[in-house]
Amino acid sequence: MLILKSNRIINIIILRFPKKFTDTPEGQLSWTSVYKAVSDSGFDDILKVIELLQSLPSTSVRNECGFSIMKLAKTKRRGRLNINSLNNLMVVNQLGQSIAEFDPRPAIENFMVNNGTMHKLN
Q: Which PANTHER family is this protein grouped with (predicted)?
C-alpha cells in the first residue's frame, strides 16, 4: 500500500514539473531524481515526510517475530532471567548463524584458553 501511495506522489510531482522529467521513461523514475528535481521548489517539508514514510516498515513481522522469540526465552520457569541475559539470547537467536552453519571451534578455543591458562580436558 505504501508503494502505491509513493507511486501516486511521484505521478503528482511529474504532473507538477513536467519539463524536468520529459526524458525519463515512465516507470523508471527514482526518488533520488525526484529529490534532485524538486528540492529547490518549496516542497522540502513534503519530501521530508515522504522520506520518513519510506523508512517505516510495511509490516510488523519482524516485531512479531521478536516478541515470539522473547516469549519462548522468558517463561514462568525462568523468572530470574535478567534483562541483559534476555537481550543476549534474543540477539543470538535473531542475528546468529543457524546450527548447520555454526562452527564451534573458535568458541571452544576461546573457552580453553582463559587468562593465559589452558583448561585440561579430563
A: DUF4371 DOMAIN-CONTAINING PROTEIN (PTHR46880:SF5), RAS-ASSOCIATING DOMAIN-CONTAINING PROTEIN (PTHR46880)
Please tell me the distance from the alpha carbon of residue 97 to that of residue 68, in angstroms, as a whole number. 18
Distance between CA atoms of 6 and 54, rounded to whole angstroms? 8
Helix%, strand%, coil% for the chain, nearest 5: 60, 5, 35
Neighbouring-strand partners of residue 117: 114
The pair phi, psi for residue 39, each rounded to 5°, is -60, -30
Sorted by where each begins, the domain ranges of the chain are 2-55, 61-118
- Model's pTM, two decimal places? 0.41
Tens-digit pLDDT profile for residues 16-62:
665 555 555 665 666 777 777 777 777 777 778 777 877 777 788 88
